[in-house]
Amino acid sequence: MIRVVATTPFDGQKPGTSGLRKKVSVFQQPHYVENFVQSIFDSLEGFEGETLVIGGDGRFYNREAIQIVVRMAAAAGFGRVMVGQGGILSTPAASCVIRKHEAFGGIILSASHNPGGEHGDFGIKYNVGNGGPAPEHVTDAIFERSKAIREYRIFDAPDVDLDTLGITRVGDMVVDVVDPVEDYAELMGTLFDFDAIRDLFASGFTMRFDAMSAVTGPYATAILEETLGAEAGTVVHGVPLPDFGGHHPDPNLVHAKSLYDLLMSDHAPDLGAASDGDGDRNMIIGRGRFVTPSDSLAIIAANAHLTPGYKAGIAGIARSMPTSGSADRVAEKLGVTCYETPTGWKFFGNLLDAGLATVCGEESFGTGSNHVREKDGLWAVLMWLNILAIRRQGVDEIVGEHWAAFGRNYYTRHDYEEVDSAAADGLMAELRNRLDTLPGTVIQGLTVERADDFAYHDPVDGSVTTRQGVRVFFTDQSRIVYRLSGTGTAGATLRVYIERFEPDPARHDLETQSALADLISVARVLPDIEGRTGRKEPSVIT
Ligand code: VG1
Ligand code: CO
């Protein structure tokens, strides 16, 4: 019943920052999904009879891809697949299920925060047995294999019923359709003080959670409304749709603007939060106060001991390099290390496994901890709710006190999307050429102190990852970082990360873009963004 199908390689099946992401139409080409999935299986060893977890964010093509993966897993010799009902598993829930059931690994169908629908993006990602994204040596092997693949193996069988819970079979392989929320919700209950959060809601605390018509709807409704007693209607856009309702499921100031506007208005609830396509990102907004993801990480690290799961304190913090230095100050005060890693959650896995870090975060609206091996949107929201339930202060007050104690890192990211790839590569190459000559240069009154191209030396396995972004540090404790995105599907996206530390509490209430105006201007002229890309203004500012 196993069919061996001859095939030829496709160009560009190279996993990026988080899996392989392309337009849906690319994945719909005959053999495209099969080639990549076979390349994954060919790069792994020892999974005979083992369990593979499969699920996705519900976007267009999710079900079709899952049927292919299930039949190929049967042909490859897996003993069991656990599939989220309806093909649904948020990325953190998939990580949770892999760990809890000691699966060999998992395949997550998602392009995360990228738009969905027939004309949107699709993606496939492999996660290893610790529940985290495959590390670089695995993704490199998958890519190498994809360039040489000649055949794939697939079980000839009818589609499995993804909607009915319980066990069926494809050949000898068990297909276990599981509730996508249950294991995850149970884990959250062990980490946070649900009684305290219930009391908070019972006391009249109000919230809006925008699931952006993506995967977190069922999770948020079950946990926030049904378990914790948040008012019905707290969760909006709570039904996952294949095209995310035509919206861009990226919880930031641009794509979740209606939530932001509500929180800045007269009828703002106490807390606003949102999550992305696959449920690993989060945005936190208090009444009248947006919390940057970098600040959120720092505040969570400083307050985690107030929650049951972290009451013993944290062993360390890890943040991606472009994330602001606010967490570093918390680590210093706590007497723990703050690790600085390249962009992408896969670099946190070793630190978490080795017990070196407990909480991790990225400026791109990603926060998480050692409870799973992915960033976790709802976890961050529950962490904030638990902190608010114990401190009984508003978000704005907590953020203000944090800045007063640690100083404020003004922070913004400017993205230039879909620029010409050659122009973007040229811009980065020129910056790299200038690394030696930049120190000492004065640009519009700001003096460059040092500049480098970030390289990461993993303290656990000794691996080295180079060329992770050009950093330019100035003498006034400010910094600009340039790097190209590894998740886009059209042209190149140049990301410019701009940050300045402000110790003076009298200067903590400035509007971010104006507080950083001089640095923003330097960030544009230094590599001549307009001259090289033709762009006067960024496409997205967060
Ligand atoms: C972006 C973010 C990065 C994040 C990655 C995956 O990558 O910058 O911090 O880990 O997306 O997030 P890049 O290479 O485009 O800058 V998700 O929610 O899309 O899995
Ligand atoms: Co995501």
Automatic annotation (TrEMBL):
Catalytic reaction list: alpha-D-glucose 1-phosphate = alpha-D-glucose 6-phosphate
InterPro entries given in the database record: A-D-PHexomutase_a/b/a-I (IPR005844), A-D-PHexomutase_a/b/a-I/II/III (IPR016055), A-D-PHexomutase_a/b/a-II (IPR005845), A-D-PHexomutase_a/b/a-III (IPR005846), A-D-PHexomutase_C_sf (IPR036900), A-D-PHexomutase_CS (IPR016066), Alpha-D-phosphohexomutase_SF (IPR005841), PGM (IPR045244)
Lineage top rank: taxon: Bacteria
A GO term from the CC aspect: cytosol
Cofactor: Mg(2+)
Keywords (A to Z) from UniProt: Carbohydrate metabolism, Glucose metabolism, Isomerase, Magnesium, Metal-binding, Phosphoprotein
Chain ranges of the Alpha-D-phosphohexomutase alpha/beta/alpha domain: 13-152, 183-285, 294-405
Gene Ontology BP terms: glucose metabolic process
Gene Ontology MF: a single term: phosphoglucomutase activity
EC number(s) given by UniProt: 5.4.2.2
NCBIfam families according to UniProt: PRK07564.1-1 (NF005737)
Family indicated by similarity: Belongs to the phosphohexose mutase family.
Protein name, UniProt field: phosphoglucomutase (alpha-D-glucose-1,6-bisphosphate-dependent)
